[in-house]
Amino acid sequence: MIIIPMAGLSSRFFKAGYTQPKYKLEAHGKTLFEWSVKTFEDYYDSEKFIFICRDVYDTPSFVASEINKIGIKDFEIVVLSSETRGQAETVFLSLDKVPNDLPFVVFNIDTYEKEFKFFETQNDAYLEVFKGEGEHWSFALPDGNTSKVLKTTEKVRISDLCSNGVYGFKSKEIYINAYIEMQRESMGELYIAPMFNFIIDKKMSVHYKLTSIEKHIFMGTPTEYTDFLGTDNV
């Protein structure tokens, strides 16, 4: 199962003068929604997709139209009536649609990853990472030269392993328990990456899957979007 939370405010785009949410913007003949979901095009026929959006800017109708256009077979659209405290809460509010023991992957609506494949290493939770620069990512601290994760952070650079926004969970119970613990301690925005620390604290198996930054197109800020518009190799 693949869960796509898209209940964010697109605030940076509106502040930059755009008049519609970023997922409705177009680049190279596709909406940014289609580019992001294209990450999973090998799974359009085999996986169920859950899209979580708000009832603003005619988004539910837009999502349904885009899904039908690209040919996803099995999907559900969860419509929220109000803002959430962040991506972690948005996903949490959809988990009644997920069977108890079904693994699922979460991804954002502003990144396209080429050649995506599910992580086959046995784990209770995992995140995809690439080696990158800067402080504006979520980070994973590895256990030596293994793929085991010792710690995750949000915008605090503890390694060069930067999250690309793909998060996998063995079951919704694992997600829910970590989310409940995190939201008890956090007063701010609720990100998914810090949840992994609560899973690690329970001695569960958390790993990272290394991918290449060259396989990604980032579209989450106005600058990234305009850079994408100027890219020829897509």
From TrEMBL:
CDD domains (UniProt xref): GT2_BcE_like
Name assigned to this protein: Capsular polysaccharide biosynthesis protein, BcbE
